[in-house]
Write a structure and sequence with these properties.
Shape: elongated
CATH class of the largest domain: Mainly Alpha
Order of helices and strands: EEEEHHEEHHEEEEHHHHHHHHEHHHHE
Largest sheet: 6 strands, antiparallel
CATH topology of the largest domain: Transferase(Phosphotransferase), domain 1
Strand order of the largest sheet: 1-2-3-4-6-5
Number of strands: 12
Strand content: 5-15%
Structural class: alpha+beta
């Protein structure tokens, strides 16, 4: 460990603080002595720096990332060797995606926030693939959620430490880093071919990991989190995971379809590349968009027990997991405490939060997935939440355009707008209708009445799909 004030490369970089550490390397915030700019330095662990193979693999990471220049990839800008080998990185300030998911507490992200996170990630990984680079360790911990100079959310992919170069890019350490039969990556996000220890991995292996990340973002739990690494790997190879639409009521069909295709056991049935994945996922807000073809071996399974009279609706959770209905009853949980938390990163060996009512915040079956607005708990950081717009009326899937039109036809113009929640607009329309009718001796009725009927009907229909403004017109 290097305390604040330590120098790298003859005093060119001064350590400000430790940002994080792992079994392989530690990352420090440093300041350039001449430019006074902030950077991050990833320093190889001192005990490992003497191993030529690990040292070469570490330096190869810098060579790989230095080839990538993309807004959604953390750039390597320099290499240091004194007092230890290190990579100088672009400093991306913000939480990791793993921290973001944990900090949301019990709130699912809205559709727009999911897209604001996933679409740029797909762009960055796609840029790496076009350079012939497969990451092989994509996971929420290796994605940083920062912001650009304009304050717009900017996810960035980092840590290409076990990346594989698919073709000849001049890296002499390639063969040493990809010996056959060696599994590299984090178990819950490995592709089936990684689990089998195959060497010839391509971009579709990263597609699988991105599908697992999307699953976790929209459901709040990992697709292949099992009691042991062996069980996780078996479920990956067998393609067994809980269907996301069974966990989350009202989940947009495009999310579930993209997850199914990305997590296909057969690589040929996944998205061909990140561009195809991105263009399909971008249509998630369009309910009329065609869904991608279901893989032939989509072995997604549901272990949700059938509800009983005592339990009420199925919770959508695995009965074998801690915190399930039967388990909570055995521990003396009070009635109504039925929804169990899905396993999450956080406290405990497996990241479980057995006593947090995680599942209660997700919409039950039949209720809409959040469309817009920040659903975070007070005080929880949420750098990519869609801000609630002033005067926006929430989505109401039970709203009836027929009732709005009927009120305007049979009663008075403006009542249909009030039914839509647009009280000020409805009152104004009613007053305008009365004034114009008096001035024109009823001649304006052929204009104001149809306008009120059409507006109320169309706004009510629109409100079934998305929030509407208090003064929004058709």
């Amino acid at each position: 460990m290097y305390p604040p004030g330590s120098k790298f490369e003859g005093g060119r970089y001064e350590v400000m603080k430790l940002l994080g550490s792992g079994s392989f390397a530690a990352v420090y915030l440093v300041r350039h002595s001449g430019l006074l700019s902030l950077h991050a330095i990833k320093v190889l662990d001192e005990k490992l720096a003497g191993d030529p193979d690990l040292r070469n693999r570490f330096l190869a990471e810098g060579q790989i990332q230095a080839q990538l220049r993309h807004p959604n990839v953390v750039a390597v800008t320099d290499i240091v060797t004194d007092p230890a080998p290190g990579l100088v990185l672009e400093y991306a300030e913000g939480p990791t995606l793993a921290e973001y998911l944990t900090d949301r507490g019990n709130a699912p992200p809205p559709i727009r926030a999911v897209l604001d996170i996933m679409l740029p990630i797909l762009e960055g990984v796609g840029a790496a693939h076009r350079k012939g680079i497969v990451h092989r360790d994509l996971k929420p911990d290796n994605i940083i959620l920062t912001r650009d100079a304009a304050g717009k959310g900017r996810p960035m992919v980092t840590d290409f430490g076990i990346a594989k170069v698919m073709d000849d890019t001049g890296l002499s350490t390639q063969k040493r880093r990809t010996e056959g039969g060696v599994r590299m990556g984090t178990v819950q996000y490995m592709s089936p071919e990684q689990v089998r220890g195959l060497v010839d991995l391509d971009a579709r292996s990263d597609i699988f990991a991105l599908g697992a990340i999307l699953y976790e973002v929209v459901t709040g739990r990992m697709a292949f989190d099992r009691p042991s690494a062996f069980d996780s790997m078996k479920s990956i190879v067998d393609g067994e995971y809980e269907p996301p639409e069974r966990l989350i009521g009202g989940l947009p069909p495009m999310f579930a379809a993209c997850i199914r295709k990305a997590l296909a056991v057969d690589p040929s049935e996944r998205f061909a590349d990140c561009d195809a994945f991105r263009s399909t996922l971008a249509l998630a807000e369009d309910p009329r968009a065609p869904l991608p073809e279901r893989p032939s071996k989509s072995a997604a399974i549901s272990r949700i027990p059938e509800p009983t009279a005592a339990q009420g609706p199925a919770s959508g959770l695995d009965p074998r997991r801690p915190g399930h209905l039967a388990d909570r009853a055995a521990r003396g949980a009070p009635p109504g405490a039925g929804l169990a938390p899905p396993r999450r990163r956080g406290t405990g060996r497996d990241g479980g939060r057995d006593d947090a009512p995680w599942g209660q915040a997700y919409p039950p079956p039949g209720q809409p997935y959040p469309q817009q607005g920040s659903h975070s708990q007070p005080g929880s950081p949420d750098p990519f939440a869609v801000p609630e717009e002033r005067g926006m009326i929430p989505v109401n899937f039970n709203h009836s355009a027929f009732v709005s039109a009927l009120l305007n036809i049979c009663c008075l113009p403006g009542l249909g707008q009030m039914y839509n929640g647009q009280f000020g607009k409805g009152l104004l329309l009613l007053m305008l209708h009365v004034v114009l009718a008096l001035i024109t001796f009823g001649g304006s009725l052929f204009i104001t009445w149809p306008v009120a009927i059409i507006d109320g009907c169309l706004v009510a229909s629109k409100r079934r799909r998305q929030p509407v403004g208090s003064w929004e017109w058709f």
